[in-house]
Amino acid sequence: MIHDWLIGLFSKDMGVDLGTANTLVCVTGRDEIISEPSVVAVKKGTNKVLMNGEAVGNRAKEMGEKAPPSIQVIRPLKDGVIADFDITEAMLRYFIRKVHNRHRLFNPRVVIAIPSGITPVEKRAVFNSAQRAGARKVFLIEEPKAAGIGAGLPITEPVGSMIVDIGGGTTEVAVMSLGGVVNAVSIRVAGDEMDLAIIEYCKRKFSLDIGHRSAERVKLEVGSAYPLDVELRTIVKGRDLATGLPRAQELGSEDVREALEGPIEAMCEAILQTLDQTPPELAADLVDLGITLTGGGALLRGLDKVIDERTHLSVVIADDPLGCVARGTREVLLHLDRMKSVLESGDDEY
What we know:
The protein has helices at residues 4-7, 50-53, 58-63, 85-99, 120-133, 143-150, 191-206, 212-222, 253-259, 261-276, 280-289, 303-311, 324-334, 336-339; strands spanning 14-18, 22-27, 33-37, 40-43, 71-74, 77-78, 81-82, 109-114, 137-142, 161-166, 171-177, 180-187, 208-209, 233-240, 246-252, 291-294, 315-317. The chain is α/β, with parallel strands linked by helices. The longest helix has 16 residues, at 191-206.
């Protein structure tokens, strides 16, 4: 019998943050993180991925909102869970092929981060998709645990750690101790909802219809959750709802802050709900350790200050918040025997 450690000499194991907006992949033995949009371009009416299966990620996103009717650009995950099984499988196969070339003798073991609030059926869908895509073994881990490990929090120790992971489709709020999630709230309000809020704000205030990519750019360039010392300005372009003609409009960070009030309030309520349900001894630990923010949403200017004011706890943005979940999955792979207790499931459970 060939043991996993021997197979590992001829294989590259992968940790995957399978996100609604972006998929991040860490590979054992490498420091860098591969990050591409969770987007696939297919021939309309089929599941055939264009460009010999390579129209995935960055290549597919370039086609988004500009493709002819014969091409569909699909995001196969919605709110952190699989909405299209076949396309998700094709996307995973692309990433496995990208980092695990055909010269390898054995397929990789894969650890995939999943939202804490998904159902057993949804977990099974992720597991099956990864297996069919070419994974030798599949393990699942809840996103808050992976984010906590990637951020360097002591989640396996008898002390309370709190993580707020704001991705594209979901915001995961969790208090963890001894390798388990003690209390968690998962809401389907995150980066995508912020983009939609900016789109709706532009329609309502400026009678301007803008695309999702433009809204995301505005959020990144001038978005804020808290008043800035120097407010920022940018130009957004779209279609005038009154005339139907293309038009440009100046937007300020004050505008975006007003647009994002709803999603930010929903996130704060999820954090407060989690704190309210946390046992007192663990809540006491949080007075010293505070709250750690991870995920792309953690980069929104001033969000840490808003949460600080609402919770009266110190709020820290993790180093490289975008890569925390992916780095956490790789850390689990590197110490799989020692960290199996943090896994949600594995091959032996299916």
